[in-house]
Fold this protein.
Amino acid sequence: MLARVRSGALRGIDALVVDVEVDVSSGLPHTTTVGLPDGAVREGTERIRAALRNCGFKHAERRVTVNLGPAGVRKEGAAFDLPIALGLLAAFGDFDLPDLSRWCVLGELGLDGRVHGVRGALPIAAAASRAALGALMVPAVNAPEAALAGGPPVFGVETLAEAVAHLRGEAVRAPTTVDAAALLAAAPLAAGDLAEVRGQPSAKRALEVAAAGGHNLLRLWTIAGGPVRSGPGRIGKHRRRGQQPVNVGVDRPALLV
């Protein structure tokens, strides 16, 4: 039997929706994952098997094929654990799960079935919104971040059992809501004064213009001819005395990653 659920993969600061297809058929017990998975994705087979068993779900000893599409994009990290596990349960056909093709699901599974946080919940939620998906299921710790995208309803779960109970309607969880303006207002202000920074006139000028206009900044640099890196750096923590910190617009949540 074939089951399909959606997930997401990061591409820089952006993301794309990934189709997770799980096929269960007769044959020697074996799990094959295709679609350019990295080591963490392939190792998820063992995490998923243990999580299903420790949560009381029967893992049928059959041949399992997992396809992550588009096949030409490399899939990295353990965020595919939860969607693959739910796809397996749906493909087994014994757990009365609804059609999962409109769900975007993320989450790393522990051996005891706990759902651990993952990277990139916000851009993946934005990608799910662009794809007009119906809902998102993410680790509880990532739910406020995903809700910032302002797209489909976001449901945070802490265990695999909670995810299954929600989908079956046995213990429906409330969608996560977040006040982006209040969240940003509660963030600590930048510390330090630009007067403490020696040199760097171009960088200081960029900070002043960004703070005055309420713009965002992305700082790029290289070290000894190495790869391009990004991040605020120490200078990003300073500002002119009396000057407001650089603003991160709540209407552009994708820039918060």
Summary: The first strand starts at residue 2 and ends at 11. The CA atoms of residues 222 and 251 lie 30 Å apart. The first helix runs from residue 39 to 54.
